[in-house]
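Risk mitigation, structural track. In case the binding assays with glycinamide ribonucleotide fail to produce interpretable data, a predicted complex structure has been prepared as a fallback.
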Amino acid sequence: MKNICVLVSGGGTNLQALIDAQNCGEIKNGKIVGVISSKEGAYALERAKKAGIKTTVLPRKHFSDNLAYSEALLRVLDEYKADLIVYAGFMTILDGIVCDAYPYKMINVHPALIPSFCGKGFYGLKVHEAALEKGVKLTGATVHFVTSECDGGPIILQKAVEVLPDDTPETLQKRVMEQAEWKILPKAVSLFCEDKIKLKDGKAYVEA
Ligand code: GAR
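Fallback model:
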């Protein structure tokens, strides 16, 4: 059984999707052992507490720089004996020492079809604003391994979502979450815990 730690900063709807999937038995060979928030008062913490999951608040503003924050985070992850770390709306930039400590053991959900609308500055609603600005007709979500390159790690799962003519960033964000993020994130977590994701030549492959 793999120990899963979920990193959050906000509302935590993706965390909720993971909790619901766990309660339905959809996460095989894995258990959420801890939720770590970079923001005090994040609603994600309430969701974790309601589900009886341990929480740790590690506010970014209490640390002088990314390195000091990352060192503290590594200590917490070590205490939870994390085998898999899931970024679920985690908005804090970390030092490379975290990737080095957990190579291909960290996954992130991004609200677009990478390589579109990703990288530095593309997070949360900004991603959907950019998609509408460009006028794309399809967007979606991506789950990928976290590497030192922002949103650049091997892609595990993606799902496309239609953009509608009268969409606002908010309506598009909601549809992408409902139709894509909340489905592919729990699926990717289960696949990881079942050892069904293989890496070859810098790409991720899912075993049947
Ligand atoms: C989600 O849409 C997630 O994909 C996005 O932030 C939102 C968090 O919502 N993450 C990023 O933009 C990371 N680059 P949640 O707190 O309700 O899960």
